[in-house]
Design goal:
about 30% strand; about 25% helix; about 190 residues; 8 strands
Length: about 190
Amino acid sequence: MAEIDLQFRLDMLPMLTSLPGGRKVVVDHMTDRQITETYAMVEKDASNGLGFAVDEYVTEEDFRDEVCEGFGFVVLSEDKSELISAFFIIRSRFCRDGRAADPIVIVREDQRGQKIGEFCSKLVMQFAPKLGFVCIYFDIFTNNKAMLHIVHKLEGLTRIGHLPYSGRLGDTGKAIGSDVFFYSFSNQSNNI
């Protein structure tokens, strides 16, 4: 199995901060054990047709192969005993030079509805340029209403297209498309 390069660190982490509701949390680099825990959340959502295709990451090794080429982060309870959410900033498949980011954001099921996904997405937008990315693509299934709502709230993202087929939903087996949003971290316009 692939492993995240634990040698790279953002100097600001671990970081004690607050969620939108005021709850204190710690944002930190992801550990190997937390990759496994995150994969379990992704697998459950995929089987329920929530944000991930059932055929996207068939095994944990498939998941690790994709995410370990990027950077993984977690949002933990203040005492660090509980994983609340996780996010990855990986290299986008839409860009050949590896400098475009593609985020994966997941919030533990019992923690949803508290703006944690938006919180993580804002961190993605802050962290990605510090990690050397020049732009970012959000590729979001059309049935992922929460994430679509979040990207519409993030300043500067431009919807650049629609992919009619992005994968199959685990709950129905039906094909699902995705909307693609773009943002450039340079001072240039985000209009393409």
